[in-house]
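[audit] Reproducing an earlier prediction to check determinism. Same input, same settings, fresh worker. If the tokens differ from the archived copy the diff job will pick it up downstream; this log only records the rerun itself.
[audit] input (442 residues):
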Amino acid sequence: MMNVLKFGGTSVGSAQNIRKVVEILAVTEKPKIVVLSAMSGVTNLLVSLNQASIDKDLAQITNVLEQLQAKHFEAIEDLFTAENQPETKAQIETFVAALQEIATGGRTLTTYAELVTYGETMLTWMFSRFLDQENVSNVLLNASTFMNVGSVENPNIDAVAEALAPQLADNPSELYITQGFVCRDERGALATLKRGGSDFSATIIAAAVDAAGVQIWTDIDGLHNNDPRYVQETQPIEHLTYNEAAELAYFGAKILHPQTVAPVIDRDIPVWLKNTFEPSAPGTKISNEYHNRGLKAISAKDGITAIKIKSNRMLGAHGFLRTIFEVFDRHETSIDMITTSEVAISLTIDDARNLKAIITELSVIAEVTVEEDHSIICIVGENLIADHESYKAFGILNSIPVRMIAYGGSNNNISLLVPTREKINTLQYLNAQLFQLEGAIA
């Protein structure tokens, strides 16, 4: 059976790291499809190129293109023999010229996607050519020809499978290389799976080919029980259920795209999170296996806006809640947390692009208060609600100004809303109160 391996931008961010990836491919099971991100920093450059295109800033366009070319040339000079460098550099120059044409041409509905997905195009082409040089047989696939997902929120796996199957059959190989992040939308137009979407690409492809498993290779040894950027002595988690991983990803665990596990749950395809720079580390396995229930991990999601909707006259009236939710639905804005009292509703959103219009509509029927710069701290574990240790989390009310608590909406998480300035204090407090075990959590 096919395996799917995804390597993130850091894993392919330099010539040295690309060699590590090739070493990993040499010892992993075949056949496999390898999904690659752009080199680290490249997508950010392409986003700035898109802005320069909007601004018609020719000097900035030239500046960004020069940086992109220089970054790839640096890797080529390290990876390729003197004999192979001219041809490889010439192709990168062709890609850069195409980028310039897109950036300076007229803007269309697909200009953004055309620009920002080029990093994956350049990297996968270069990676495939390097494998050729090293006598590693491979086939380079163009993801834009088969990633017909339609809706990003609910990808059409059957359409992807239908387009991908003949390409695999017509090009038999034990190693395929393709791009993450890129897809086709409902209109068939070029689109993206949003930032960090290469994880999602990997699991969509895995579902389409009914893969044996998915390996997501990054720069950390699996998912930790807290954010190692802010909390010392965090521990890797060896096993997570799909539900636990989905909760953690949605509520801020940076190692996973929020929708990563959705395509593989029904097909029971396991996902491993592995460390490119420490490949022998066990990492984290995500599957339907239960190794232990209860508390597993804590994650944090920033950029949260809290909205309080108060109406003494209408709150208890039939249809009032529906009216509120319809406002958010019209503006395609999801709600993360919600609590109610006798006279008010408090809820949170993580996408404030349509906030002004939402407030305008709500203000017709209620008094609206908005608080920005908040974070959701999510405590996750299978059947966490029944864990006898979970009460310890609520001692935080003694020292941190908690704005909202969501408890009981899911058996698998407890969510706290705090001002973002208190995020690190909250993570550290919860770590001290909830994790007293040594070693990995099974």
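[audit] rerun output stored. Observation attached for the diff report: Residues 437-442 have pLDDT under 50 and may be disordered.
[audit] end
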